[in-house]
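Exercise (ungraded).
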Amino acid sequence: MMENRQKEKVHEVRGPGGGAGKFAKPPKLKDPGKVVARLLSEVFRDYLPQLFIVGLLIVGSVLANVRGTLFLQTLIDDYITPMALSGKEADFGPLTGAILRMALIYLLGAACAFGYARTMVYVGQGALMGLRKRLFTHMERLPIRYFDTHSHGDIMSVYTNDVDALRQMISQALPSLLESMITIVSVLLGMFGMSIILTAVSIGMVVVMLLCTRILMGKSSAYFRKQQESLGAVNGYIEEMMSGQKVVKVFSHEEKSLARFKDLNEELCDAAFQANRFANIVMPVTAQLGNVSYVICAIIGGILTVHHIGSLTIGRLASFLTFNKNFNRPLGQISSQFNSIIMAMAGAERIFALLDEEPEKDEGYVMLVNAERQPDGTLRETSHRTGEWAWKHYHKDTDTTDYKPLLGKVTLDGVDFGYVEDKLVLHDIRLYAKPGQKIAFVGSTGAGKTTITNLLNRFYDIQDGKIRYDDININKIKKTDLRRSLGMVLQDTHLFTGSVRDNIRYGRLDATDEEVIEAAKRANADGFIRRLPEGYDTLLTGDGGSLSQGQRQLLSIARATVANPPVLVLDEATSSIDTMTEKIVQEGMDNLMRGRTTFVIAHRLSTIQNSDLIVVLHEGRILEKGNHEELMAIKGRYYQLYTGNQASGGEENG
Amino acid sequence: MISTLSKYVGEYKLPSVLSPLCMLGEVLMEMIVPLLMATIVDEGIQKGDMQVILRVGLMMLFCAIMGLTFGILSGHFAAKASAGFSKNVRYGMFEKIQAFSFANIDHFSTAGLITRLTTDVTNLQNAYQMILRMCIRSPFMLIIAMCMAFSINARISMIYLGAVFFLGLCIAWIVSHAMRYFKEVFRKYDELNASVQENVTGIRVVKAYVREDYEIGRFGKAAENIYRMFVRAENLVVLNMPLMQITVYSCILGISYLGAKLIVQDVLTTGELMSLLTYCMNILMSLMILSLIFVMLTMSSASAERISEVLKEEPTLKNPPEPCFDVADGGICFEDVSFRYHKSAERPVLSHIDLSIRSGETIGIIGGTGSAKSTLVSLISRLYDADEGRVLVGGKDVRSYDLKTLRDNVSVVLQKNVLFSGTILENLRWGDENASPEDCKRACRLACADEFIEKLPEGYEARVEQGAANFSGGQRQRLCIARALLKKPKILILDDSTSAVDTATDAKIRKAFAEELPETTKLIIAQRIASVMNADRILVMDDGTVGGIGTHEELLGSNRVYRQIYELQSGGNKDFDN
């Protein structure tokens, strides 16, 4: 069990059907303007000149297109009609010239289009790469608290869904949106030049079209929300049942599991049908209303031309009708891209929320350095590993630097701590670890054992009291150096994609192959590693999923061993290893850590029995302290746990 | 793949046919409009005939309205068909998975099955809808517009054939090359996300080893790599638009020039020229959309492939044709049994196991990590089938029993156990759906779960969250034992099921079993000697073989491995309550 209460909080927040959380997220925008401004000022900051050029090129491309439409008018009115009148001896010279000129304009237009599309590739992908790097860098700097209070699924979804939504918007929706808008404006100008009456009619039809889309979209989005909910329920159920599929089999519960699924699935089918129906209708409605607009303009334009009202000619009418089509098409395009833009905006909002998280603060200035003992007994800083370390302490007031040897003396003085402000999980912890001692924490789930180790390396900061490391307040030590001085083997093992060798070397990147193997031997992992298909080069994926929990634990011990830290913390590091192997591992670790301070958390007695100091924790308080013999002698809780002759099974307050 | 999936259209065949038919209607109506336009221009405007303008105008309006109706109907049917199709596929998969054996589940992995049931089905649903609508619309439009154009003037329309041929070739080249890059880039993209995932879940390790900068550096390289690949792929794709424009513009200019000539020769009318230009746009646009659809369909074909893998998978365990529905007693016998999880594995996990257990006996099983304790017991309830030899329960081969009968009589508490969201009572009734509250209470008393349940405000009605996150490890284990007891099995197997329960409670549970379930054969796998030392016999597993079997005293005398474990644990053989 996790001792970390925060993690459970996260589960509670996600509520029944747990997994549903990541599926059901109807987009809701708080302040779209602000999001756009931030996108421009942060994400596209380095690309503003390129964006400006893209804008110019789009204008060029659209202008060429508009000029082409106007050409239709010239073609009919200025060339074809008079030429038709002049019959067989018509001169094709001027027409050929006009067409060649037009070809040149078109070519320029196409070049513009190519130019801006190509630039957008670099802008879009470059901005995304920058964003990804920024997100990841920022995330790595966030405090552990952030990861404990946010579900991992939600954090991941920022990378997968949100950045992806932005990617799609940038590479697909944005260019077509820009083009559509510029087209609309320029076409509108062209239309005004042709006929004000017909333009008014076209605009009127567009208003009708927008109203219809709005109504349909409104209906559709209500059903979409229902579909998302339903999908969340189905996917949550799938997640739960698939995770427990083996239990389903063992209890022959297949039919029941299927029956409930059938109901949920039917509901989803219904919701999906409703939602998609409205979404599907939007396209034909805009397209056909566009046609209606076209037809009405054709009729009115025809009447106007016949009666010579205004200055409408056949050529102008033909051009106008083309404009009408060009005017309606981008509107349809905008409405079809609308959804993806909203999604991207909502995604951007979540991306910015992550970027706005306060990174881990570090005001420490005492540094950990490799040290070398001088003949006169003082310490000198060196760059190479000597197996000795010193704290480099710079005193600002006197502008002097002194070196203090790292001994591994750890004191906790009246430490109070709670993951949530007013809910303390540790009360008044007082503890004194002499250099070189092996200190064990025991106690039931939730007693606060893991929490203490979280405080030692400042994953969390204490609320009251002081923790001193070699008599230096740990707040004064640079966090990275503090952590480097503490080797940690955590309760949850985590391995990374890469070879076994890389995973062990994670403890110290410059370790040689020999050192890696040496560490594996000490952790008793060498044997099983050599039996893997490719030994130390075997590729581990999916958190080392192909290994047993025990093997993974051995690897994490090897990883800590290769780091060869001055102080070691083992948090249930051998819980899944059988007692025989554990004994061998433990002897190896004891040898390695001789003369160095070790903290051990374990619920197996054999693991901690030979500790110098055993601390019995209960509900966040220290109940008893002493070595095995002393604790047995006082016949307190340790004695009871040890002899097992008290029925306190109900004490687990998970 | 297609034949596997097409079966799941099922009762949605009608909408699946009607949707494209309506789409055909819509396209036809849309394509008539430019033709009518030509009539208005030639007969109405040029001749100044108001009657014609109004009559043909009304016809055009009628076409638009008919088009709208067809369009709405097509959208309606497509939504119905695609929602129904995905429902059927999802249900079909879920049903199939219920028939899967443990080996099948291992093959796909839980995460794999979840992705296939969720994301992949959604992709398939979208793809199906696209096939019904866009996939039909674009070719229809292409063909109809082409026909219309040819009916107006075959000579000019030859330009279209040339354009379609040219653009088609170019698009095909671009798409086929870009697809290769895209497939690669999306694979890398998944890898990138996987490494982010590792950093999120393993953040404590990253921070404990101060590897933030190292990870940032690695991520940066991967992100740059993805950038380069995306740029290369998209640079190809962006060729589409200027190509399209050049083709369209060339067509327009070509038609303008040729059209002007033909009009002068009085072969073509101005109105017809206008229609031809409209059809030009329609034809080339459909071609473009068709290429987009092709790309999207190729991408979702991976999902379809993954889904049909599940649908085609044959369960490796099947009920015998004439199953036996009665388990005589709780006797178990292994006859020269060997087993391996992967047929290709060099060494079997279990080799040549011979073992006989009397009904009602209590057997403790002990052995190091990886000595195949769990594997051994999983053969008894036929979670896996032995490769060689046979396993007998109640004197008969496990393969002759009805699976449900066998598993109701052989109750296993798995090492990795799961409770489901619902109330405690609902979870307990997985063991026996008709269990009375008294039955449930009794089972909980035997499993020592009653003490904490009764302390809960809602008692047996208390909610269990997904993964039972609101209960401690020890509490979960006891609930799982109670659930297994409710089956009233002839054989009860506990696979390291009390590891998180404190020693005192563990002893109480074992005592209750011995006193109240004397008839039941009990197999107890444990790490602690104390949990098994009072068993009738203890089985020591050693690297997939039986290392020894006997009573505690016998093994202490004769078995080296057992003695070692005992010495290690003696004196301090209890664990702290965790």
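Further reading is listed at the end of the chapter. For now, observe: Confidence is low (pLDDT under 50) at residues 572-578 of chain B. Chain B touches chain A through 172 residues (CB under 8 Å).
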